[in-house]
Amino acid sequence: MTDASPTTVLSAERLHGSLGDPLMEVMNFLNEVTSRYPDAISFGPGRPYEGLFEVDRIGDYLDAYRRYLAEEAGHTPDEIRTLLFQYGRTNGQIHELVARALRNDEGIEADPRSLVVTVGCQEGMFLVLRALFADPADVLLVSSPCYVGITGAARLLDIETVHVPEGERGADPDALRETVAALRAAGKRPRAFYVVPDFSNPTGSCLPTADRRRLLEVAEEADLLLLEDNPYGFFTRTGTGLPTLKALDTRRRVIYLGSFAKTCFPGARVGYVIADQHVQAADGGRTLLADELSKIKGMVTVNTPALSQAVIGGMLLTHDFRLREANKPAADFYQENLAVLLDRLDTLLPRERREAAGISWNVPEGGFFLTLALPVAADNDLLEASAREHGVIWTPMNYFYPPGDGGRHQIRLSLSYLTPAQIAEGARRLVELLERSCL
Ligand SMILES: Cc1ncc(COP(=O)(O)O)c(C=O)c1O
């Protein structure tokens, strides 16, 4: 860009290094292709289906929360006015309600004082990373391929990230142990391991209970914290699911990153962290990690918006603190989408044909995503051709690996944002692309 007017020009080189990192722009190409081909069917976004939202309900939830403040919590009208209109408690005002839901939905006994209500799970990641990573030798380990929200946050904070390859069932405890040993031998300090055990983004894998227990053992042996992120756990056929790491954690090894984006709605931007670890000061005094996160949060977002908390609090109250049950219709919807996608792929690409061509996919039991492996490079060029010539969009899996280091032949298909009819048509178009490029 050339501009002769005497405006201030900043040198990109003097901005924070993360801003020039390809990681920070990883989803841009996908967004740009989506805007150029608006009629294409997109398996790209991991957003919840909007047909499940009702605008009128927002007022009902707000009312439910207001009634709770007056009738159950015993607040006066003046206090309620303050709670809804003012700056609020840094770590949130619905922490007790969230703790009640966690007990019902996940069997997690969380002391409300150990909860930090955040601006989405994303802020939770940022707070936790800022607090835990103090030394340049500290390393964040991530189960790989990995959600870019955490690697992006780490990059913003200049935290070194090391990818630990997943096995077919998700995070690999043995690979974690070996990576920790190798890093220690190289003089590094592995500090925490980030993992999405339930229907991970991007692969859709779900970690078996035995591996969850192994992860906890490895974390204990290696003196590592586990950062468990769990936005998709409710979206299963049975609606019950496996125990979270946090529910299995008896030694406070797990910092749990919660999100209401998929179980309530993302527009509220409300999430939370369970940070129940004790922190010992040099003078022997003890605090909770949540208290330390509060200091950071006070300097980042001050507090999570009271109105957003009120609506989410109202949803928890309305659904009797049972979001898993309340999400049954959503879970059924996503299950149908998953079934349609798997059925269409299977019908259009029968086993013998796809095996001969080197095409395969995993069969998740829930969640928003599945992985398709191809014999050809699934890169931006193929994505462009896919959108232009076949009207179908997907996410190259290499977006979720370090640049140039994995996922070259895989794509992520997200099934959450489409209707069953769109999924069926999208699958037909996708197979058309595959017919042309690899069959
Ligand atoms: C694994 C994972 N964690 C966190 C988030 C975002 O959570 P929030 O919207 O609460 O910041 C997402 C959203 O796509 C996700 O896939």
Would you kindly provide a written description of the structure presented here, covering whatever features stand out?
The strands form 4 sheets. The chain has a 7-stranded mixed β-sheet, with helices on both faces. The protein folds into 2 domains: 141 residues, Alpha-Beta Complex (Aspartate Aminotransferase, domain 1), CATH 3.90.1150.10; 266 residues, Type I PLP-dependent aspartate aminotransferase-like (Major domain) (Aspartate Aminotransferase, domain 2, 3-Layer(aba) Sandwich), CATH 3.40.640.10. By secondary structure, the chain is of the alpha/beta class. 43% of the residues lie in helices and 14% in strands. 45% of the residues are buried. The protein binds pyridoxal-5'-phosphate. Pyridoxal-5'-phosphate binds next to helix 5. Its cofactor is pyridoxal 5'-phosphate.
